[in-house]
Amino acid sequence: MPKGYIIARVSVVEPEGYKAYVAAASEAIRKHGGKPLARGGRAEILEGEGRMRNVIIEFESFEQARTYYYSPEYQGAIQHRLGKSIGDIVVVEGA
Predict the structure, then answer these.
(1) Which of 17, 28, 36, 95 is 20 to 30 A from 65 via CA?
(2) Is 40 or 61 the better-scoring residue by pLDDT?
(3) Contact present, 62 and 4 (Cβ < 8 Å)
(4) CATH class for domain 4-45+53-93?
């Protein structure tokens, strides 16, 4: 079965306030069996529009990645992100 990936591209506008989101999201990732492959760190925009914070989280399946995103734990974490960042989040199925 192909793996599932949550991919987020984020611009943090309030770094201090964003820390509560990171803590809550980390707990939700752990609870739902996610494995962070990239989480912030160095980035270089090579083409098109980009954001400087990029996150890739691997799950055992597309469905498990969706379950994580819609879980009460992650939906609660999102409340800490509102107004502190701008971004795009997608779930994709691996090859």
Answers:
(1) 17
(2) 61
(3) yes
(4) alpha beta
Query: pTM, whole model, 2 decimals?
Result: 0.92
Please name every residue paired with 35 in a beta bridge, in sequence order, or none if there are none: 58
| More confident: 69 or 40 | 69
DSSP bridge pairs for 55: 8, 39
Beta bridge partners of 10: 53, 87
CA atoms within 13 A on the CB side of 79: 5
Distance CA 60, CA 29 (A): 12
Q: Where do the structural domains in the chain lie, given as residue ranges?
A: 4-45+53-93
For residues 56 and 5, is the Cβ–Cβ distance under 8 A? yes
Q: Distance (Å, rounded) from C-alpha 82 to C-alpha 29?
A: 18
Determine the Cα–Cα distance for residues 40 and 21; give it in Å rounded to an integer: 14
